[in-house]
Design goal:
Distance between the termini: 26 Å
Oligomer: single chain
Number of strands: 10
CATH class of the largest domain: Alpha Beta
CATH superfamily of the largest domain: Periplasmic binding protein-like II
Order of helices and strands: HHEHHEHEHEEEHEHEHEHEHHHHH
CATH architecture of the largest domain: 3-Layer(aba) Sandwich
Length: about 325
């Protein structure tokens, strides 16, 4: 991480004057995600500290557990998926406050090299694993089926849990492929047994893959902290866009990637990262519709129920 801090020196030197630090907890829905490594890079570089923030960053096993932590008051902010905005509609006291990442360039369909599906047009009736029912990975299987003209159930989705379980199911012949974090599938591809059949960001151009949440109490009582967290986040994104090498080091360290895989992951996923956190109504409508389809909500909610947009767009100096 020393390389990250050294490489980010220019960003830190241009930072605002230091102030007394506020303790904040920013939770990750999952430990390993390129988008979420933004937090690691910003902390290692001193960018969050320069905004007067002393950050802890616990990781959880999915959006539901993260939302529970925010509801209990043990986490102030959360980095999670777009479909997790449905929790706020159901009463969770933590609305989305900023877009982190748009189209799902970080998600792929991973298939075996030998004897596998050769193209998405061959997926009809195939057994494709995803993590859990009602998840983003579930929706990606359904949306791919729709785009191929087969309705939402033309591909046989299977809830198989994490990548390790899905890969094992493919090897044993129980599944034909699985939805995977891009970096994980690229690592499997590097090892020779699997390959990336589809990058979902190439097919799905409107969606919020990741958003940042904040506890309502923090929004109401510490709005300046919310603004500083967002400013630190998007300052880090600006640096990552301009400086590939330290961003790759962050991904390698946090996600356990080889240098080549980290490079390819950066090239694909940096394109999905938001520069200012702003929401737009057409994309919010797509996310809202997905919440009903996935069974998260009984009805499509009004988009206004999903988020608090008063802190975005973030404008950097």
């Amino acid at each position: 991480m020393k390389l990250i801090a050294k490489a980010l020196c220019l960003a830190v030197c241009a930072a605002p004057v230091a102030r007394a630090a506020d303790d904040v907890s920013i939770g990750k829905a999952v430990e390993t995600s390129f988008a979420f490594t933004t937090l690691d890079i910003g902390i290692a570089a001193g960018i969050f500290q320069s905004e007067g923030l002393n950050v802890s960053m616990p990781a959880f096993r999915g959006d539901a557990v993260l939302q529970q932590a925010m509801a209990s008051g043990s986490v102030d902010f959360g980095l999670g998926s777009g479909p997790a905005m449905g929790f706020h509609v159901k009463g969770a006291p933590a609305p989305a406050i900023a877009v982190i990442a748009g189209p799902p360039y970080n998600m792929s369909l991973c298939v075996p090299v030998k004897g596998g599906v050769q193209g998405p047009q061959e997926l009809r009736g195939k057994r494709i694993g995803f993590t859990t029912v009602g998840s983003l990975t579930d929706w990606l299987v359904r949306e791919t089926s729709r785009q191929e003209g087969w309705g939402s159930d033309g591909i046989k989705g299977m809830a198989l849990g994490p990548n390790s379980s899905s890969a094992a199911a493919v090897r044993s012949g129980q599944a034909d492929g699985f939805v995977s974090e891009l970096a994980s599938c690229l690592q499997l591809q590097h090892d020779g047994a699997f390959r990336v059949l589809v990058n979902f960001g190439d097919r799905i151009k409107q969606f919020y893959t990741h958003v940042m949440f904040a506890r309502q109490e923090v929004i109401d009582t510490r709005p300046d902290v919310v603004r500083r967290v967002l400013r630190a986040w998007f300052r880090t994104i600006a640096f990552m866009r301009a400086n590939k090498a330290p961003s790759m080091v962050g991904a390698q360290h946090t996600m356990g990637l080889s240098e080549g895989v980290a490079s390819e992951t950066y090239d694909k996923e940096i394109a999905m990262m938001s520069d200012d956190g702003a929401f737009d109504q057409p994309t919010l409508q797509i996310v809202a519709a997905s919440l009903k389809e996935l069974g998260i909500l009984d009805e499509v909610p009004p988009t206004s129920a999903l988020y608090d947009g008063r802190f975005v767009p973030v404008k950097l100096p």
